[in-house]
Specification:
Elements lengths: L2 H29 L3 H19 L1 H9 L1 H7 L11 H18 L4 H26 L6 H7 L3 H25 L1
Helix pairs in contact: 1-2, 2-3, 2-5, 2-8, 3-5, 5-6, 6-8
């Protein structure tokens, strides 16, 4: 196989992998209406994207799920003001994980999960104070609490398992 053919094959694999990861990140909230499960799956997709494809693809994956969930009515309209912050928190997860996982996977995963949670918790407090409709406050507070830390950590664990399986398949 010549080098041009190898480059094209690698591009095809990368595009296919990105499409699969985005597909799962979009399908999860459409099919499963349980924040613990969908959040864990989406966070796993973010970590997998960053690990397998790189930072830019991990960031791309982070743009899509909450936007789609809001557009199709899965995410409560009360959370619409949080969408930019959710997207930024996904970027924080990808960036912190990508940087620190070079030292150690779990250092990157745990630090990224804590940073994502802290950012969402802090920004949700600001958004709650700005909401005109105080009836929306409990929905925002419930969705942006410690569950965010738990789903980020669970996503890291799922991604770790997937990475181990993929690496075993590659060696066969």
């Amino acid at each position: 196989m010549n080098s041009n053919t190898l480059v094209i094959e690698n591009k095809k694999i990368s595009i296919s992998t990105l499409t699969l990861l985005i597909g799962i990140a979009v399908a999860a909230p459409l099919l499963i209406h349980q924040q613990l499960i969908t959040g864990s799956i989406i966070n796993a997709e973010l970590i997998l994207g960053a690990s397998i494809l790189g930072v830019s693809d991990g960031l791309l994956i982070g743009l899509i799920p909450s936007t789609i969930a809001l557009a199709v009515g899965i995410l409560s309209p009360a959370l619409a003001p949080m969408i930019p912050f959710i997207i930024l928190s996904n970027a924080i997860l990808v960036l912190v994980f990508s940087y620190l996982s070079k030292i150690n996977y779990w250092l990157g995963a745990i630090a990224a999960s804590i940073c994502k949670f802290a950012f969402l918790y802090a920004t949700s407090s600001v958004v709650i104070n700005l909401l005109q409709n105080r009836q929306l406050t409990p929905a925002v507070r419930q969705t942006m609490n410690l569950i965010q830390l738990f789903t980020a950590l669970m996503g890291s664990l799922l991604a770790f398992g997937a990475i181990k399986i993929i690496s075993k398949l590659k060696t066969k």
